[in-house]
Amino acid sequence: MSAADGAVPTTPAPAANRWPQVIWLTVVWVLLWGTISVKIVLGGLLVAVIVTLLFPMPSTGPRLPFRPLPLLSLIGFLTYDLAVSGVQVSWETLRYGPRARAGIIAVPMLAGSDRVITMTAGALSLAPGSYVLQIDRRRGVWYVYALGLRGTGDVARVRRMVLYLQRRVIVAFGTAEELTACDRGLVTS
Amino acid sequence: MSLGDIVTAVLLLFGALFCMVGALGVVRLPDLPARLQAATKPQTLGLLLILLGTAVRLEFESAVTLVLVIGFQVITAPVISQIIGRSAYRTGTLRRDDLVIDELAERMSEDEDGGRAGEDRRTAP
After folding, report:
1. What value does the mean pLDDT take over residues B68-85?
2. Which residues cross the membrane (chain B) (predicted)?
């Protein structure tokens, strides 16, 4: 989230919580070199530690729950969605062009933590044809712009897609409470 | 022609096709948010396909670097479309009359009727 929120905590994360960042930076370093050797990994670790110490990220609260299998399923779904929506938007462009129709759809938000919202917004905006126009956190509503709507059936389809995408993100990254809240929300919405 | 050649050719051609449709969309689609979809998204897919096609032909060490390109493309593409799209709605470049459904406008007008300032729709100078 951006600093414009005004609610971003400014205290740096405790050193013990920074190792995921160090590992990620090391992985990027090794990928940039393209080969893996002890010297490169150690060099990457050194650079990562220095960068992490020099530019501490703000603390984001307790550690993110992380479930590898649901994450894989989320990545798989996003890849599939990227391809399908790519074809849909291409079709819309070629077939309708200037007469392409879009809409803005309100979808209930199923979980409220910063990280889940950020990741859901990113995932929603990744696929062609849709992106998050506005997030109303107080009322818990997403406003999603979607291209290629032809009727009420399409609106319902997009709404269902957004609801289930939220659930996939929460299953991969949300806390247990968020997951139960999400399932409760799915039943009522 | 080996199998790798065919896979690469197919991936590169499809990638180029998506990039071309993206360019067409910028010309053909009616308003800014729709064009934004065409400009950013099919090209993400096109770039992914082209990079994959290239990776098939490269030796492993170089192909791994392409994974980074894909990763950062996927992380950054949504951010820019979101920011531009938001400003498009607020400055009125989005053709509201053409929308099939606009539940955000409903909510905004409710807010204004309720005497609350709400979120200003027309902040553009």
Report:
1. 80
2. 6-27, 64-85
Whether the predicted interface score ipTM is above 0.90: no
Which pLDDT belongs to residue B10? Answer: 92
Taking each helix axis from N to C end, the angle separating A152-173 and A114-126, rounded to the nearest 10 degrees, works out to 130
Interface check for B82 against chain A (CB to CB < 8 A): the answer is: yes
Residue A131 has its nearest CB partner, among B30, B67, B85, at: B85
C-beta atoms of B42 and A28 within 8 A? no
Q: Convert B74-85 to b/e letters by CB count within 10 Å (16 or more is b).
A: beebbeebbebb
Per-residue pLDDT reduced to its tens digit, A77-117: 988 888 888 888 888 888 887 887 888 888 888 876 777 88
Q: Which helix (H) or strand (E) holds A131?
A: strand A130-136
Residue A142, phi then psi, degrees to nearest 5: -95, 140
What part of B 16-45 touches A (C-beta under 8 Å)? 18, 21, 24-25, 28-30, 33-34, 37-38, 40-42, 44-45
Q: Inter-chain contact B101–A122, Cβ cutoff 8 Å? A: no
Interface check for B80 against chain A (CB to CB < 8 A): the answer is no
| pLDDT class of A63 with cuts at 50, 70, 90 | low
Query: How far does the CA of residue B2 sit from the closest CA of chain A (Å)?
Result: 26
Does B97 have pLDDT greater than 80? Answer: no
Contact call for residues A159 and A145 (beta carbons, < 8 A): no
Domain locations in chain A as residue ranges: 3-54, 68-188
β strands within A29-123, DSSP E = 102-108
Q: How far apart are the first and last CA of chain B?
A: 60
